[in-house]
Amino acid sequence: MPLISKLPQVGTTIFTTMSRMAQEENAINLAQGFPGFGSDPALLELVAKYTRGGQNQYAPMSGVSELKLALAKKTQLTQGYYPDPETEVTIVSGATEALFAAFTAVVRPGDEVIVLEPAYDSYVPAIHLNGGIPIFVSLNPIDFSVDWELVASKVTSKTRAIVVNSPHNPSGQVWSREDVEQLASLVSKTGIYVISDEVYEHILFDRRVHISLGSHPILREQTFVCGSFGKTFHVTGWKIGYCIAPKVLSAEFRKIHQYLTFSTVTPIQYALAEYLENPQHYLGLPAFYQKKRDLFVEGLKSTPFTFQDSQGSFFQLVSYAHLSKKSDVLIAEQMTRQLKVACIPVSVFYSTGQDHQVLRFCFAKKEEELEEALRRIQKIEILFD
Ligand SMILES: Cc1ncc(COP(=O)(O)O)c(C=O)c1O
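That is the input. Now the predicted structure with pyridoxal-5'-phosphate docked in place:
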């Protein structure tokens, strides 16, 4: 009997494909979203300290108390509210697990989940695996703003949840206070849950601030805030993240987490707890990334691309729609093979592959690497003939 796939549309992701192509072509990889530089040696030392010190057995299911407490304190400092560390904070194996567990906690067969697209690729499979139906709403293709009337028009009696992401991958768009209020008035008193992907919470530009949905008194009651230490501390390979949600939601979330992974890597939890004691370790991130974003957008100004400066995350979009109607997948491939710079075609972030001739670059790379990539990208016009 052939196995009938539960995810028939899912194949190898574009991130794997482009990274493999980048490797084959010896191209600079600005495709996949991971930092091209190391973490703070002090953090690595802390991990060594706790592994050598013997913290190598299972952690408590919901996370070690020290890390949950440190995260609650960070949330108080940056977002002005204090989640109960023992009942509202759960440490998980990456934001991907947090998102999956949150979807699994709330989505039942036949439930509708509103997805704003372009969207990060883990949301839709998680909805499908739980028998849910994604209801897609496109963001404005120029500035990636949310059309709240359009979102409201998609709400039905079957709407169980909405998944949102700010700072946004792939666009770099950051929600305003107005967006947060619009969402609050849309979902208040409806029983619609909010799954808020905030993995780029500390990567913001031009003095922007991140408004966590957990900081909103109405939204807090129905939101799962999902975060990632991998993104914040340049250690994406560690796969460690968290979920903050009210006690009743966290209780259901933990039931899923308990049987997905049970618990998360112990010595790293202790190391992060100690590292978080110094708020500068995360408050310094905007200045660190601003230099890279500025260098990258300055260089892009002497290319024929059009773009809006990224507001947050470590991604920059560029458009070539005024130059060519060639597909973004083709241009991304040609850029990798001929110019030796890999990027991601943004059509892959849409359920129907909408192609607006837009490419995504990751600028979480060393400055020399960005400069070399920019030199190569200058020749982009040869791809449009
Ligand atoms: C928007 C978004 N959400 C979630 C994740 C996954 O985070 P983690 O590596 O902590 O699972 C990523 C990673 O690329 C992301 O870009």
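The CA atoms of residues 301 and 361 lie 14 Å apart.
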